[in-house]
Amino acid sequence: MPPLLRSPLALAGSRSLSSSALVAPVVAGLLASPVGVSLRVGCCVGADALAVVSALAWGGAARLSVFAAFGVGGAGACSLSAVQPVAAAVRAGASVRFLAGGPLSLPLAARLWRRSCAVVRGAGALVLFDPGAGSLAVAGFAVAQALPVVAFAAGAPGSPRGCAGGWVAAHLVGVPCWLWAPLAIQPPLFVLAAGAGVGGAGSD
Q: Computed from CA positions of residues 122, 11, 144, 99, in that sequence, does the dihedral angle turn out positive or negative?
């Protein structure tokens, strides 16, 4: 693994993603790495659910940690909750932390944000898929924790919330991506070599 990124890796992204085409190759590449990467992911539909399903399909349950804002059996879930993929993760033996955003007495928005922060805390980097405003807010939290942020998207995403810098074209597990270079440390060229290793959660 390049020195820039270290395991475990937090995964997050758009709730609107409906195809695994963007997520599955990256998740498979990360889990196939010889360094034994572990993944942390949230509980929403879209990128979170696709990452969970992709990791389970690869046989990576032992290296998957899922953070759910709802309780066991879907208590407190909403239309944004990926209840069935999380249940599948439990059955497969993945580590699943229910009520990761706090008790059900908290407002849903607060639980989702706290859940996302829990995914990022303890991670070595944040990997985003087609990030929108919600994901970029979490990216801002990750940058504040001095964590690298990588994004997979057709074009350069917006800036992480509250952060100055720029996205630099890079590759991760052989897949083109964007790497956030904070203004304070932005070098002339900040690239992860394709195939040189791996590096890589709110959602939108």
A: negative
For 85-139, how does the pLDDT look when each residue is reduced to its tens digit (9 = 90+)? 999 999 999 999 999 999 999 999 999 999 999 999 989 999 999 999 999 999 9
Task: Please give the angle made by the CA atoms of 71, 75 and 77, to the nearest 5 degrees.
Answer: 95
- Residue 186 corresponds to which tokens in the numbers above? 């932005």
DSSP helix, strand, coil percent of the chain (3-state; round to 5): 30, 20, 45
* CB of 6 closer than 8 Å to CB of 125: yes
Can you give 163-195 as a three-state secondary structure string? Answer: CCEEEEEEEECCEEEEEEEEHHHCCCCCCCCCC
Beta-bridged to residue 125, according to DSSP, are 9
Q: How many CB atoms lie within 10 A of CB 63?
A: 19
CATH fold of 9-185 reads Rossmann fold (3.40.50)
Residue type, 70: F
If one counts every other C-beta atom within 10 angstroms of the C-beta of residue 36, the result is 10
Q: Rounded CA gap, 38 and 123, in Å?
A: 9
Greatest CA separation found in the chain?
50
pTM above 0.85, yes or no: yes
Residue 185 has a pLDDT of: 54
SS3 81: strand
| Domain boundary assignment for the chain | 9-185
